[in-house]
Design a protein that fits this description.
homodimer; Creatine Amidinohydrolase, Chain A, domain 1; 23% strand; four-stranded mixed beta sheet
Chain lengths: 388, 388
């Protein structure tokens, strides 16, 4: 039984006769179900035991070749021309399409557009929402997906080694880093990382982080300007492979001597991650919230604030411990304060961090596969912070 | 009156007391209104004459600095910890947030998530949908936006010159292109384009097209493999600048002698574009559908099919004539069969093309600004196809 057969079964069990999903190439759920991507929105329908997609005439040829579905229908079956921008025409087409496949009671996800739902309802088709079952299905990776993710993380690690080596080979003059005779900036390191990954066939749809000093204290600050000695440099790389699976990895480096406070932060973060790994070694009976709780506990013991000890803090550990990775950089499950199961086949990050506005940040992030007897870490690179 | 004041006025005129938009960094509407981007979903509310955003604690510090709004509220005001993945918690927070700003009758866009709408309604807040007024506002670019788009297109043109020069400098051996002694592939040209644009501070969030031969007959095929002489090579480049505005430009090249049929296609496409430009010179009384109609007319006169002469065709002119460009690669207005106004301040592409499955494709694309007395073409590069 493949992934869409399961969804087909659930539709019937829930008393519906169709399940519909719309989106463009920003919808990874749609790609997961159809193996097809398009810049303009298209429609997936599961009905009458079949997977059907409805695409613009422009995409018909490519969809016939690439989409892993039973039928590809062009919107030109229902209306002349290219209707990608005409909302009313699109809804009429959708209604006729649903009629063609005998759909009278349609199941959609909760993020289905309200306006479209109201128009379809006004045409006599019933609509009910369901929690995102595709997100649910995507949590457990197939062997093929695990292989793609492992490869992506290996490439990410090689890119990280590149970044480290640039910092390593730099000289320090008046507190600033110089690489091959020129000032070394966040931008220059990011460029090397990007070109390296580009050459391996990776895309970097989101910004790479090379954040130094105070920038590193803001977890999503991507960094800019000259890199400085004695300051934390957070490098967080998350490229997407040709197969569309993300890598995601973080290390923190300090060139030259690190201030005492940074060393303490690093030690706390490292311990928090190690304790999380120990817990995971117990196997998949451990809950996500226990892993996150353990990380908070260790960091709090070291005297740092966390969101559970102080929900308003902008200092200390101010994010969750990790997240699933796949076709999306962030996907289910989240390793946070929710009581989620960790099941064999899930691929998640473990990324404790500490952020002190006037000092900077430390983050260490590995990607792991949850297995029957614990986990497999896709990363091998050392977590040494100090680079001389 | 700035862009959000206008929206605020419309909310009142429509009898609502708040307007809400949610999204992450894939929502350019949200960026347009707030000048803020985040990888996880956040909320924009216009109420009580103010622009307010609701963000996770993780984003609070960065939002305080970067967002151009009146207030930044952290979700930690309502609930402990990081609730990014907990749907129920998110809806409770949203309800409390709306209450804090006195919202009882909420206006949302038509793509607002059905599930969230139903939950909010069940808590006693009225919800009404409105056509996407942000899309509407974004059609007319500010002077600053025009400047960003012109710059992006200039950089895109320089990248196109790079690609052309690689093809130009290639030798032909047994029908294949060789560049600097090695076989020249689609991938290699794409790499050069990407690195060139990366170095200018551009992102390439979507795939660059370098499609040769039969691949070029599918408008969204990104191309692969060795480039061949006597075959059309469609190069379509659409990078996004640091200011987040897209360039978008296409040229078609043929190395060596081109077959007669290709020459005819090229001539037809060129004429279609020239006729469209002539029409636009009449100034902004011309409708988008007239421009598209003219392009179809010229191509049909040359004996090719179009979607208006044959809605089912996968051969001939199988897309619309152009589209608005801005924070999105494709945005309103569309230059298609809809009777849309073309107003001064709009920035659109003009990209007629012809695609014949067994032969290949030809497309020429410029980006223009609609002005009071016609248009300004951001492109200068020649449309010569043949490269010797």
């Amino acid at each position: 039984m493949d992934k869409t057969d399961k969804i087909g079964q659930e539709i019937e069990d829930n008393g519906f006769d169709g399940f519909l999903l719309q989106g463009n190439n920003s919808s990874t759920d749609l790609y997961y179900l159809t193996s097809f991507e398009a810049p303009d929105s298209f429609t997936y329908l599961r009905a009458q035991g079949k997977d059907i997609i409805l695409v613009s005439p422009l995409e018909k040829g490519r969809a016939d070749e690439e989409a892993e579905v039973d039928e590809v229908v062009s919107t030109s079956r229902y209306k002349k021309g290219d209707n990608r921008e005409d909302q009313d025409a699109k809804r009429d087409i959708l209604k006729q399409f649903l009629e063609d496949y005998g759909v009278k009671k349609l199941e959609v996800l909760e993020d289905f557009p309200l306006g479209t739902a109201e128009k379809i309802r006004s045409k006599g088709i019933e609509i009910g929402t369901v929690e995102n079952k595709v997100i649910e299905a995507r949590k457990i990776k197939s062997k093929q997906e695990v292989e793609y993710l492992r490869e992506s993380q290996k490439a990410t690690e090689r890119a990280m080694e590149k970044a480290k080596s640039m910092i390593e080979k730099s000289d320090v003059k008046v507190g600033k880093l110089y690489y091959e005779g020129e000032v070394l900036s966040s931008e220059k390191v990011k460029r090397e990382i990007k070109i390296f990954l580009l050459d391996q066939g990776y895309q970097l749809p989101e910004e790479t982080i090379v954040a130094c000093g105070r920038n590193s204290a803001k977890p999503h600050d991507t960094g800019e300007g000259v890199l400085e000695a004695g300051e934390p440099i957070i490098v967080d790389i998350f490229p997407r492979s040709g197969e569309k699976y993300f890598g995601d990895m973080t290390r923190t480096f300090v060139k030259g001597g690190a201030p005492e406070e940074l060393k303490k932060m690093k030690q706390a973060v490292l311990e928090a991650q190690e304790e999380a790994f120990k817990l995971l070694k117990q196997g998949p009976t451990v809950k996500a919230s226990e892993v996150h709780g353990k990380v908070c506990e260790v960091l709090e013991e070291h005297g740092y604030r966390t969101l559970r000890s102080d929900p308003d803090t902008d200092s200390g550990f101010i994010h969750s411990t990790g997240h699933g990775v796949g076709l999306d950089l962030h996907e289910a499950p989240r390793i946070g304060d929710k009581n989620e199961d960790l099941e064999p086949g899930m691929v998640v990050t473990l990324e404790p961090g500490l952020y002190i506005p006037d000092i900077g940040g430390i983050r260490l992030e590995d990607m792991i596969l949850i297995t029957e007897d614990g986990y497999e870490n896709f990363n091998e690179m050392s977590k040494e912070m100090r680079i001389t």
